[in-house]
């Protein structure tokens, strides 16, 4: 069964504007939160983060709101940024 079919958080029946959250939706949301926390811990706006680490701004926005999950290569790159943010920025500026 795929993650879109699994309901991770059911809708609140008393709130007509609430909707169920799928397993995949929960995964996207958690990844978005992680990216936002990384970015804010570095004191960067979305624009600054995108420019510093050469990730398209539109992608950063989509990841942070949980609309899309970054591909595996981008997730790996984000882990490297998380571990060595200044070193990554220096390497990109030298290129």
Cα(first) to Cα(last) distance is 44 Å
Q: What average pLDDT do the residues reach?
A: 95
Main sheet overview: 2 strands, antiparallel
Helix content: 55-70%
C-alpha geometry: elongated
Catalogue the unreliable spans.
none
Could you spell the SSE succession in H and E letters? EEHHHHH
**Cα gyration radius (Å):** 16 Å
Using DSSP, what is the number of strands? Answer: 2
Strand composition percent: 5-15%
**Strands ordered across the widest β-sheet:** 1-2
* Backbone structural class: mainly alpha
Continuous helix count? 5
Explain the overall architecture.
The radius of gyration is 16 Å and the shape is elongated. It has a two-stranded antiparallel ribbon with strand order 1-2. 60% of the residues lie in helices and 5% in strands. The N and C termini lie far apart (44 Å). The chain is mostly helical and 95 residues long. The model has no long low-confidence stretch (mean pLDDT 95). The longest helix has 19 residues, at 23-41. The chain has 5 helices and 2 strands, in the order E-E-H-H-H-H-H. The chain has helices at 23-41, 46-53, 57-64, 72-83, 85-94; strands at residues 7-9, 21-22.
């Amino acid at each position: 069964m795929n993650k879109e079919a699994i309901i991770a958080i059911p809708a609140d029946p008393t709130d007509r504007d609430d909707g169920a959250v799928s397993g995949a939706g929960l995964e996207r949301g958690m990844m978005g939160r992680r990216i936002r926390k990384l970015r804010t811990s570095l004191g960067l706006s979305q624009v600054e983060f995108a420019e510093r680490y050469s990730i398209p701004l539109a992608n950063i926005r989509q990841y942070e709101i949980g609309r899309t999950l970054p591909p595996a290569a981008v997730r790996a790159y984000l882990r490297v940024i998380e571990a060595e943010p200044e070193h990554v920025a220096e390497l990109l500026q030298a290129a």
